[in-house]
Specification:
The structure holds two protein chains of two kinds. Chain A is an alpha/beta fold. Chain A contains ten helices and eight strands. Chain B has two domains: 2-70; 96-441, Beta Barrel (Porin). Chain B has five helices and 18 strands. Chain B is elongated and about 105 Å long. The chains are: A alpha/beta, B alpha+beta.
């Protein structure tokens, strides 16, 4: 009996997989999808958040900690978007490979030019992101930089397959150039939108759009009746091209304001996979930009 | 900046003439004015859009050279910081303060509350007074010490002074899923015990804790903790702790000459669906006991073992709703000698007592609704003094309801009502609490 128990115990230890594949954990769906595009079948990707989870309201579930425990590489959005759960995962995972400063700790925002960096921050202003707007997955130029950085990291951590990763990046770049041309012909320049949350800001510099109002008076603070009334009045005069929101965040409020102001509500995917036909980042951007036409 | 100025001008340019137009009485005249204005405005908009586009072009061109080096290294975030201590401003620990204050009302007087223990468990009464109360302003500090340790400190400041509730270092660099924690810290053997009062789902701790461990559970204890999280398919964490054992109810500082309390625990968790998670595990806390809180005017000396079982299920059907069901069961096995302080007569004392609570929280947007039921002596009810079973009276229980509103992540207002029958007499304690919790600064995230 004792031998059996001992044997089982040994088995559990030895069963810890010594796989050649890189074990990558991504916090957000777009990160996981991009990593999979570049890593192909040489990496295994675990994505912590589901596409319809609000990235602002996440709890560090034990399953996420366990994923961190097994990871060779953790990839995250950064700019404090994961501040509520990622530090807890990194500490509780008891995995020195993924700690800050290690090659296995990949902060995508290191490759990004953040916009909306506030010059003064206090919480009286709402849930402000002090390091800048973290929702840069709507920005093609930034995503290309992130993809390049990811490729370098994958190639460095798994040098045997470095050429494979670089090839995938080349394919990605070719598709990127082609898509970029397509997107610029959509004629989005000069369109004006009202948004529920400051989620789509990167579309403005990327595609020449403008945001003329927000349903949330301050980030993360729900709108008051007076604010909504003022907004509707402004929108009746100003006639923006649409109200932008996601299906998980502020949909109801946006719809009621849309009805009263006569401005159409445009539901956009918040992340890769959160709507049908947004299976990778290119499809996601296609869906977003086509909806804005 | 330049863009926002332009947008403001653009907005004003579109909106202002509309208001002027409203002043005109003649509808035709108004329409005419409007038409001309509209024509003029769209021309302006077109011109301004051109300016915006060319500015954006310029901006992109200006930015391009900066993007390239960013690929090699992180851009300096606060390069502008200077001063006497230079960049040390960036190396400050994270600091936060949580104010925990409440108004309390009960049909009992403050004197009666003070003497309201739980017969057979504890002689300690309730500390709160009718009227305004301040539990604490809890000061939290944390930061990495170096690449090997993180340090955490919790210093609740009360009107009596500063308490050193927790200060401990945790390893970060051990491999294979091991972690060591050392210093003074709250034990992880059970669920409520590891939480700070501001993180509880109700204003007060569950009844079995109050009866067996005290108002804040085991509380901060000096000692060492070793935990192991193997890379198994299912989350399973093993833990062992050794403590000095200074908790008044379960151990007592003088019960042994060295560390005289230990705990062992296992925590497991599975995601039952994409949106729901189950977390559960058994634990045991055991050691030597010497205290005078069980029976008034008598000292107890002996051994205790407290067995626990916890289960939590969280379900998040949508982003704005969450359901949490939670229950814990505690079973005490205690043997020793009870010595009367006056007569010095020593009797054998043997206690087998248990308790449980079950609670449910429904969260909808910024509102939280909670109910809880706690009870002692569910299965075990034995209090044997000198071989004689003592009849302590009616079974202690308590029922609770609470409504919470979170104005933001950092403000919590809670209204709670308790019907408390824990003192075994005919008098229930009907209490209402209006609690305010505020947090400022950088606070570490709470665990699941």
């Amino acid at each position: 009996m004792r031998k059996i128990i001992l044997g089982l115990f040994l088995l559990l230890f030895l069963a810890t997989p010594a796989l050649a594949e890189l074990n990558v954990v991504a916090t957000l769906p777009w990160i996981g999808s991009l990593a999979q595009t570049l890593g192909g079948d040489k990496i295994t990707v675990t994505t912590l958040l589901k596409p319809n989870h609000d990235p602002h309201l996440v709890e560090a579930k034990p399953s996420m900690i366990l994923a961190g425990r097994k990871a060779d590489l953790i990839m995250y959005n950064g700019l404090d978007l994961e501040i509520g759960y990622l530090p807890l995962i990194l500490e509780s995972a008891r995995n020195p490979r993924i700690l800050p400063g290690q090659p296995g700790n990949f902060d995508c925002s290191r490759f990004v030019q953040a916009i909306d960096k506030p010059t003064a921050v206090d919480r009286g202003l709402g849930d402000v992101h002090p390091l800048g707007n973290p929702h840069y997955h709507f920005s093609p130029s930034n995503i290309k930089q992130v993809a390049a950085g990811m490729t370098d990291t994958l190639a460095a951590m798994d040098s045997a397959n470095a050429d494979y990763y670089r090839q995938n990046f080349k394919a990605f770049s070719t598709k990127f150039a082609q898509k970029e041309k397509e997107w610029q012909t959509l004629g989005l320049q000069g369109k004006r939108f009202v948004a529920y949350h400051k989620l789509f800001e990167y579309l403005a510099p990327g595609f020449g759009l403008a945001f003329v109002g927000y349903i949330e008076p301050k980030p993360g603070i729900p709108p008051s009746a007076a604010h909504v009334e003022g907004l509707i009045k402004g929108m009746r005069d100003n006639k923006p091209n649409g109200i932008l929101t996601t299906n998980y965040y502020g949909k109801k409020e946006s719809e009621s304001i849309g009805e009263k102001s006569g401005v159409k509500v445009i539901l956009l995917p918040g992340d890769v996979g959160s709507m049908a036909g947004t299976d990778d980042w290119f499809a996601f951007m296609d869906t977003v930009l086509t909806a804005l036409k | 900046m330049r863009r926002s100025v332009f947008l403001t001008i653009l907005y004003l340019a579109v909106v202002t003439p509309f208001f002027q137009a409203h002043a005109a009485d003649n509808i035709a005249a108004r329409l005419n004015t409007l038409e001309t204005e509209l024509g003029r405005q769209s021309e302006i908009i077109r011109q301004q859009q051109q300016t915006i586009n060319s500015l954006q072009q310029e901006l992109t061109e200006m930015k391009t050279p900066e993007v390239q080096p960013a690929r090699q290294s992180a851009p300096p975030l606060n390069a502008g910081i200077s001063g006497l201590f230079g960049a040390s401003a960036l190396t400050n620990p994270n600091i936060s303060l949580v104010l925990d204050t409440f108004a309390y009302t009960s049909d009992l007087t403050t004197d009666e509350l003070e003497n309201r223990g739980i017969p057979g468990y504890t002689t300690s009464g309730l500390e709160q007074r009718n009227g305004f109360n301040l539990r604490a302003a809890e000061l939290f500090l944390f930061a990495p010490v170096d690449p090997y340790f993180n340090l955490y400190a919790a210093l609740p400041v009360t009107e009596e002074g500063v308490e050193l509730e927790e200060v401990y270092a945790v390893t970060t660099a051990l491999a294979e899923g091991w972690q060591v924690k050392g210093g003074k810290f709250k034990s992880n053997f059970s669920r409520l015990d590891a939480q700070h009062p501001h993180a509880w789902d109700f204003y007060d701790i569950a009844l079995p804790y109050r009866a067996l461990l005290g108002d804040e559970g085991l509380g901060g204890e000096k000692g060492v903790q070793l935990t192991w999280l193997p890379a198994w398919p299912i989350y399973t964490q093993f833990g062992a702790e050794v403590f000095q054992g200074e908790n008044d109810l379960l151990f007592g500082a003088d019960a042994g000459s060295g560390p005289h309390a230990c705990s062992l625990f296992v925590k497991s968790s599975v995601d039952t669906t994409d949106n729901s998670t189950l977390y559960f595990g058994p634990s045991v806390l055991f050691g030597k006991t010497r205290n005078s809180t069980v029976v008034a005017g008598a000292e107890f000396d002996g051994d205790s073992a407290l067995y626990g079982l916890e289960a939590v299920w969280k379900w998040k059907p949508t982003n704005s709703q969450k359901v949490t069901l939670q229950s814990e069961y505690l079973y005490l096995d205690q043997d020793g000698t009870l010595t009367d302080a006056e007569t010095a007569q020593a009797d054998a004392l043997c206690r087998r007592q248990d308790g449980f609570y079950v609670q449910g929280i429904y969260q909808w947007q910024r509102w939280r609704f909670g109910v809880r039921y706690d009870m002692l002596e569910l299965f075990a009810d034995s209090f044997e003094r000198a071989g004689q079973e003592q009849d302590m009276g009616a079974t202690p229980w308590r029922a609770t309801g609470a409504i919470e509103h979170n104005l933001s992540e950092f403000t919590r207002i809670r209204l709670q009502y308790n019907h408390d029958r824990s003192s075994r007499d005919d008098r229930g304690n009907d209490e209402a609490i209006l609690q305010f919790l505020y947090g400022i600064g950088a606070h570490a995230g709470h665990s699941f």
